[in-house]
Amino acid sequence: DQQVKQNSPSLSVQEGRISILNCDYTNSMFDYFLWYKKYPAEGPTFLISISSIKDKNEDGRFTVFLNKSAKHLSLHIVPSQPGDSAVYFCAASDPPGDMRFGAGTRLTVKP
Amino acid sequence: ETGVTQSPTHLIKTRGQQVTLRCSSQSGHNTVSWYQQALGQGPQFIFQYYREEENGRGNFPPRFSGLQFPNYSSELNVNALELDDSALYLCASSLPVLGSTEAFFGQGTRLTVV
Question: Most buried one in A28, A97, A109, B33, CB count within 10 A?
Fold first, then answer.
């Protein structure tokens, strides 16, 4: 039962352009959403989050958008940099807080 | 402030054996969660410990068990290992506050069952 889905296994963008990573979920009880970035041989690193009471959260080059009616969230990276190349995981949680992850999207930013 | 550390980093076990993986949580964090990440998939929630008590469990059989100690470090035990248990095991610590559940991950333990 995959409650969080990332339908694009990979994404390639040019340096300086926008990267848009998408995520869909099925459980309407999820109240908190997170994005993690993972480099090879490292654990996931927290990137940005959003509560279900908001529809947008911005942190520097990273913005997460939440559309509750569509059960969809997206991560925008502007401008994209080669160092952003990694696997990005979308995660969602409901009380008491265990997270459900998507399968990940591998982002490649080309110089 | 120390981050989340896991040991060992790599491990090879034989089918049917038992394994114990260890995790030291980030300073001040009282909640530890364990995840299994198979190749090409996202992390799958195994269970969570809060103040030494199991506080939630994913869809894993009872041969996956855990402990949390008074210093909030944790162990994951897997009995009767199967080939499909080969995966990256991730530990994450957090300090849940209302409306926020960011968890910080260790580098993981790569378990190979042969």
Answer: B33
Output the pLDDT for position B26.
Answer: 85
CA neighbor of A98 nearest in space, from B84, B90, B67: B90
* pLDDT tens for each residue of B56-113: 899 999 999 999 999 889 999 999 999 999 999 999 998 876 555 688 899 999 999 9
Nearest beta carbon to residue A46 from set B31, B41, B104? B104
For residue A51, give the nearest of B35, B99, B104 by CB distance.
B99
Contact between chains at B45 and A4 (C-beta distance less than 8 A)? no
How far B15 CA lies from chain A's nearest CA (Å)? 25
Instruction: Quickly list DSSP for chain A.
Output: ---EE---SEEEEETTS-EEEEEEE--TT--EEEEEEE-TTS--EEEEEEETT-SEEEETTEEEEEETTTTEEEEEESS--GGG-EEEEEEEE-TT--EEE---EEEEEE-
